[in-house]
Amino acid sequence: MKIVVCIKQVPATNDAKIDPETKRIIREGMKAILNPFDTYAVEEGVQLRDKFGGEVIALSMGPPKAEASLREAISVGVDRAILLSDRAFGGSDTWATSYVLAKAIEKIGDVDLVICGKQAIDGDTAQVGPGIAAHLDWLQATYVMAVEEISSSSIRVKRMHEDGYDICEMSLPAVITVVKDINIPRVPSLKGRLASNKCEIPVWKPDDINADTSKIGLNGSPTRVVKIQPPPPRHTSTKKIEGSSIECAQTLLRELKLRSIV
Amino acid sequence: MIAFTDAERKKYRNIWVVAEILFGEIQPVTYELTGAARTLADLRKSEVWVVVMGSDIEGKLESLFAYGADVAILVDNPGSSGFVDETETKIMKRLIIKYKPEVVICGATTRGRALIPRVSVMTHCGLTADCTGLSIDPENGDLLQTRPAFGGNVMATIRCSNHRPQMATVRPRVMKSPEPDPGRAGRIIKEDMLTSDSEKIKQIIDVFHSTETAYNLADAQIIISGGRGMKGPEGFKLLKQFAQRVGGAAVGASRAAVDSGWIPYAHQVGQTGQTVQTKVYIACGISGQIQHLVGMQSCDLIIAIDKNPDTPMMQIADIAVVGDLFEIIPEIIREIPNL
Question: Hey, what CATH topology would domain B6-197 get?
Answer without folding.
Answer: Rossmann fold (3.40.50)
